Amino acid sequence: EKSYPGMADDDRSGPSDAEYMSAISTRGNEVNSLLGRQQYAQALTKAVEDPPLQTKTQSVKDAAAEVVDRVFSGVRDNDINGLVEAMDPATCDIVMKYVYRGLASGANSGSLLKWHAKLVEQAGMGCVIRAMTDRKSV
Amino acid sequence: RNLRRFLSDTMANTLRPYLNCIRHTLTAALCLRNFPSQVVERHNKPEVEMGGSKELLLNPITIARNESEKCMIEASVNSVRISVRIKQADEIEEILCHKFTRFLMQRAEQFIILRRKPVEGFDISFLITNTHTETMWKHKLVDFVITFMEEIDKEISQMKISVNARARIVAQEYMRQYVR
């Protein structure tokens, strides 16, 4: 059963902002190369790995969200179903949080809405409710 | 005619997923229960409007189809506020939208779940509390909001067409006196 660092309610420890930023930039480069090789499943898993749930700094969260947005725009709409079906519940929750973050801006809404529909079909209403109620946001 | 049908199909293609997303999010947000005020004894207030206690409020979700059309859903333990920004392409649509929403909001009592003032940055707002979900079916409430969003676009474009038609007739009649 996969769990992400920082998702548990009592998890108060966490890397500092600088550590987060360096991790995000290395992850960004790896995601770019995976997207270049069209390995979308690995790119998505890599992009949502270790989300900055415990930081309060907006710029860190923005940087991490930017990496995930790159994956969202890179993936073709036809591949969304296959990618979502392969995800486990914890990943579905994290990806749903990023989908809602992306929907707030209005950019790339067409494919984000497809992601949302498929995630609800896969993970159910619980996924939506956890994205709305979780104090730790992406 | 084929171009018009093609355009309406592409418009409908982006509308359906947008409304489905709002439907799912609303169904999740409308899990409400009674919660008396923690601040004042014997008072029962919609917590999303009071905005005081952080532990009672959920993360507000905005679903934007593009820059001009979006829907914000703010939920709390006993109430949900849904704000809609309607698409207004030009000035006539802006005026029509403003007048139409003002007409509806003045009759908010009859609508029960309508808010008298829209939230800042939006055109119209709904406030649904636990009393509403206790007396009305939740899936019907969601259906109402979604149908409202669908219909308001159609109504505004119909009103715009009739305004233009009337303007054309009035201009014709007026100019008739100058034509031999």
Summary, kept brief:
Chain A has 138 residues and is mainly α. Helix content of chain A is 67%, strand content 0%.
* Element pattern of chain A in H and E: HHHHHHH
Q: What oligomeric state do these chains adopt?
A: heterodimer
Helix content of chain B: 40-55%
Give the overall silhouette of chain A: globular
Total DSSP E strands of chain A: 0
Rg measurement of chain A, Å:
14 Å
Given the helix and strand composition of chain B, which structural class is it?
alpha+beta
Order of helices and strands of chain B: HHEEEHHEHH
The fraction of residues assigned to DSSP E strands of chain A is under 5%
Largest sheet of chain A: none
Helix content of chain A: 55-70%
Large-scale geometry of chain B: elongated
Q: What do you see in this structure?
A:
The complex is a heterodimer of chains A (138) and B (180). By secondary structure, chain A is mainly α. Chain A is built from seven helices and no strands. Chain A has helices spanning 17-36, 40-48, 58-74, 80-85, 89-105, 109-123, 125-133. In chain A, helix 1 runs antiparallel to helix 2. Chain B is an alpha+beta fold and 180 residues long. In chain B, 54% of the residues lie in helices and 13% in strands. Chain B has helices at 2-29, 47-50, 91-106, 108-111, 130-135, 138-176, and strands spanning 61-64, 70-75, 79-85, 124-129. A four-stranded antiparallel beta sheet of chain B has the order 1-2-3-4. In chain B, helix 1 packs antiparallel against helix 6. Chain B is elongated. Chains A and B meet through helix 5, helix 6 and helix 7 of A and helix 1 and strand 1 of B.
